[in-house]
């Protein structure tokens, strides 16, 4: 039996609620990867917005295991989660969501999320990352899985540029900040603010990293994507992080960053807008 082109019943997608209007401020990169993938595959879904302090409770209530752990072995409960009532499936990792959508609905939307390509980008952080990365698991899309891990590491290593102006919902801001303070082992939220020479140093490191990543986009300049005019999940991986940058960097720094390296990442951000509808 051939795979259905589309699911008959809309899926339920769980994302982290930020400050109203939520559709303009949602900025968690992994949920964004999944939203872009859902829209790319033209899948009907609705978003359930979860306040950040309630993520662990909601994930546990849905019976979806944590897919990451902190360095001390405790579970890191986060989103996204996708529920597909057509197959009674619950998927709780952004990469697994993309793999699931392509496997179950290969004929839907804008094509194959995982076309063959060489994704030879490597980044190894100099120090431990505050937020744990998704674990690599063997799959038929290992090239993409490795790329996802390295891109996550590269951007996570520079999130000190973005954390301080995260658009927390005022109703839960204090609880959310307290959790970040606890994880980082700092004394107050002001410790997350990076200014002056230190900020310029991190920005330069970020610019150089994006230059290395940008080399992949120069192999085919017929369009904004790695494969030119054809988008793939690799573009969506980077696009999820660009969405975070757009919301959490000061406006002038966002404009500066989207113009780095000949505007590669500004063009990618703009090219992915057609898949960025918040439903």
UniProtKB/TrEMBL annotation:
Secretion signal, residue range per the UniProt entry: none
InterPro entries on file: Glutathione-S-Trfase_C_sf (IPR036282), Glutathione_S-Trfase_N (IPR004045), GST_UstS-like_C (IPR054416), Thioredoxin-like_sf (IPR036249)
Spans traversing the lipid bilayer: none
Pfam families: GST_C_7, GST_N_2
Every GST N-terminal domain range: 18-109
Protein name: GST N-terminal domain-containing protein
Species of the source: Linnemannia gamsii
């Amino acid at each position: 039996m051939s795979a259905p082109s589309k699911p008959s019943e809309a899926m339920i997608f769980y994302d982290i609620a930020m400050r109203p209007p939520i559709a303009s401020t949602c900025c968690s990169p992994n949920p964004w990867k999944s939203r872009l993938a859902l829209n790319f595959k033209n899948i009907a879904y609705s978003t359930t917005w979860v306040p950040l302090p309630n993520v662990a409770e909601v994930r546990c209530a849905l019976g979806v295991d944590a897919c990451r752990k902190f360095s001390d072995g405790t579970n890191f409960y986060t989103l996204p989660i996708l529920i597909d009532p057509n197959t009674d499936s619950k998927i709780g990792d952004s990469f697994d969501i993309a793999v699931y959508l392509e496997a179950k609905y290969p004929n839907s939307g804008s094509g194959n999320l995982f076309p063959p390509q060489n994704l030879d980008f490597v980044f190894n952080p100099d120090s431990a990352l505050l937020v744990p990365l998704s674990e690599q698991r063997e799959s038929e899309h290992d090239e993409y899985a490795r790329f996802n891990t390295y891109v996550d590491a590269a951007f996570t290593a520079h999130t000190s540029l973005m954390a301080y102006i995260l658009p927390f919902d005022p109703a839960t801001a204090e609880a959310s900040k307290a959790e970040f303070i606890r994880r980082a082992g700092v004394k107050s939220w002001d410790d997350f603010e990076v200014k002056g020479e230190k900020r310029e140093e991190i920005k330069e490191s970020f610019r150089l990293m994006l230059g290395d990543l940008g080399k992949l986009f120069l192999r085919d300049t017929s369009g904004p994507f790695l494969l030119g005019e054809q988008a793939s999940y690799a573009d969506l991986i980077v696009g999820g992080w660009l969405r975070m940058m757009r919301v959490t960097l000061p406006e002038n720094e966002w404009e500066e960053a989207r113009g780095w390296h000949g505007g590669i990442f500004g063009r990618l951000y703009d090219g992915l807008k057609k898949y960025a509808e918040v439903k």
